[in-house]
Q: What sequence folds into this?
């Protein structure tokens, strides 16, 4: 893990890459700290959602709610509070082990999953704190923040374009190049072929 990293330290590293001063808090009272406080949560969530990072994946059985849906489906389940994008990666109707078929007969409404199944197990990505992020992902976040901070902090679009290329590659790479490609190669070494295949199929769609 990236020992000692925080949201503020990640933003400070990005500011240093831009030739700006570091910040000590999002409440420093200067323009860079205010900009970071607004942009960082969005950039973090966006970067986590770009790929099924191994350190964000988790599985949980959902609790069935006592209230029932108005129509169509019989049961409602509470979605996990730490599912950051509201979209499950896979939904199963069994607690059995081994290879199981995913179900598709369900609907997401707000923070609930509606279905006719009496058991629901969810694979999803959870929002992870900075102390639990591996170093390769933290470095990607630094480059991502440098890209997003460049224009508002330095007023130079060329710096913005440069750091975007460092983070995600050239336009021809469809935002799948640069350091992002290196980071997913590192992360993918610890992933199953099923997870990687799901990601590639999602990209095709």
A:
């Amino acid at each position: 893990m990236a020992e000692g990293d925080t949201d503020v330290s990640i933003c400070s590293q990005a500011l240093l890459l831009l030739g700006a001063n570091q910040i000590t808090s999002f409440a420093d009272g200067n323009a860079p700290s205010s900009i970071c406080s607004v942009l960082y949560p969005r950039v973090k969530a966006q970067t986590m959602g770009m790929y099924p990072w191994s350190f964000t994946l988790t599985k949980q059985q959902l609790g069935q709610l006592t209230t029932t849906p108005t129509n169509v489906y019989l049961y409602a389940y509470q979605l996990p509070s730490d599912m950051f994008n509201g979209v499950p990666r896979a939904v199963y109707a069994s607690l059995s082990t081994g290879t199981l078929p995913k179900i598709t007969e369900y609907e997401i409404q707000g923070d609930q999953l509606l279905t006719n199944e009496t058991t629901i197990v969810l694979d999803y990505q959870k929002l992870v704190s900075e102390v639990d992020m591996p170093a390769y992902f933290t470095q990607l976040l630094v480059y991502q923040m440098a890209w997003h901070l460049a224009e508002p902090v330095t007023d130079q679009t060329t710096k913005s374009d440069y750091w975007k290329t460092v983070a995600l590659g050239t336009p021809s790479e469809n935002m799948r190049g640069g350091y992002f490609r290196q980071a997913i190669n590192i992360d993918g070494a610890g992933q199953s072929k099923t997870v990687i295949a799901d990601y590639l199929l999602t990209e095709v769609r």
Observations:
- DSSP finds six helices and six strands in the chain.
- The two ends are 32 Å apart (CA to CA).
- Strands lie at 57-61, 75-78, 90-92, 106-109, 112-115, 121-125.
- Residues 200-205 have pLDDT under 50 and may be disordered.
